[in-house]
Amino acid sequence: MHTTAFARILVLLAMLLLLLMAVGAATRLTDSGLSMTTWKPLGYLPPHNSETWQKNLDNYRASPEGKIINKSITLAEFKQIFWWEYAHRTLARVLGVFLLGSIIVLNARRKITRKQSLFLFLLLCIVTIQGLLGWLMVKSGLHAEPRVSPYLLAIHLTIALSLLLLICARLLGEVKTKKRSIVVSKYSQATCFAIAALALITFVSGAFIAGLDAGSIHNDWPTMSGKFIPTDYRSLDSYITNAFENPAAAQFHHRVLGTLLLIASIILFLNLRANQRNYQALITHARLLIILPSCQVLLGIITLRLQVPLFFGLAHHLCAIAVVVCSCLLPLRLVSRKVGQ
C-alpha cells in the first residue's frame, strides 16, 4: 500500500508519543516525578560531574518530598529517580522538535498540503501547552504537600491520550480503501460510541488512581478489604470531593467502570457478530474489543494484588491506551443504516 510522507510522519509521531507516555507512566510508578525541582523550557544537559549531581540532590532534599519522604536518600538512589524524570522531559522536547522539523521540511519539499500542515501545527501547539501543564503539575507537588495534584495529573494524561487519538484518527483517514467503512445498524453504531465514551471515562478514572496512589490500598480482589464497598468509601464529606480525592472511592469507581467496559465490549462483539453482514471485514477489530479489555482487567487484578510493581503497572497502563484507541477508532470505521435495510 502506498503511503504519503505525511502518513509516515504520523506513524512516527504515534510511536514517539506512545514511548513518551510509557516513560511518563514509569516516572509516576517509580515516584520520580518530583526529582527535578526546576524547569527550563528549552531543556539542559544532565549532570555530568559530582558537583552538578550534588547540586541537584541538594535542591531535591530542600523540596517537600526530600524533607518529608526521602530524608535519607543517597546520591545513587537519587540518580535512579532523576533519570526517569529527565528522560520524560527530554522525550517531550524531542517530540516538539520533531513536529516543528516535520512542518518545516515537508513544506520546504512541498510534500504536504495546507490542511495537513495546519494539523501538525495544531499538534505542536497542544504539545507546547502540554509541556507547560506538566511543569504546573510538578510545581503543585513542590509546596507543603509532596504530591502532585491528581486533577492536573489526570488532565496531563488525558491530553496526551487525546493527542494520540487525533494522530490515529487522522492516520485512519489517510488510509483510503474502498472497504474501510462498514455498514451497521444505528443501534450498533450508537453502542460503539457509548463504549468509546466509557473507555475514555475509565482511562481518566485510572489517572486519578495514579494521582492518589490508590493502588497501594485494598489490594484484594474481588472485594476491597473483605467488603464489596470499602468501609472508607465515604471518608470525605462532599460527594464530588470524595469521588475524586478519596483513594478508596477512586479505586472502587475504577473497578466498576472497568468491569462495565468489559461487559459492554462483549455485548457489542456478540451484536456485531449476529447482525453485521460484512463481519469478516471487522473481525480483527471486533476480536480486539474482547481481548484487550479482558487483558486489561486481568492486568489490573495482578497489578493490584502485587501492590503495583513497575512491570505490571506499566503493562496495565499501555493496555489501557490500546483499549481506548481500539474503542475510539471503531466508530470511525462504521456507517450507520436503519435496521432492516
Per-chain topology:
Blueprint: H1 5-29, H2 50-61, H3 64-68, H4 75-108, H5 114-140, H6 150-174, E1 182-185, H7 186-212, H8 239-245, H9 247-275, H10 279-305, H11 310-329, E2 334-337
Parallel strand pairs: 1-2
Jot down its keywords.
disordered C terminus, mainly alpha, two-stranded parallel sheet, 341 residues, 11 helices, flat
Helix content: 55-70%
Strand order, biggest sheet? 1-2
Task: Please state roughly what percent of the residues sit in beta strands, choosing from under 5%, 5-15%, 15-25%, 25-35%, 35-45% or over 45%.
Answer: under 5%
Q: What would you call the structural class?
A: mainly alpha
* N-end to C-end Cα span: 33 Å
- Structure summary, number of beta strands: 2
- Poorly predicted ranges (pLDDT <50, ≥5 residues)? 336-341
Instruction: Spell out the helices and strands N to C.
Output: HHHHHHEHHHHHE
In round numbers, the mean pLDDT is: 88
Envelope shape: flat
- Radius of gyration of CA atoms, rounded to a whole number: 22 Å
Largest sheet: number of strands, sense, barrel closure: 2 strands, parallel
Total number of helices = 11
Oligomeric form of this entry?
A: single chain
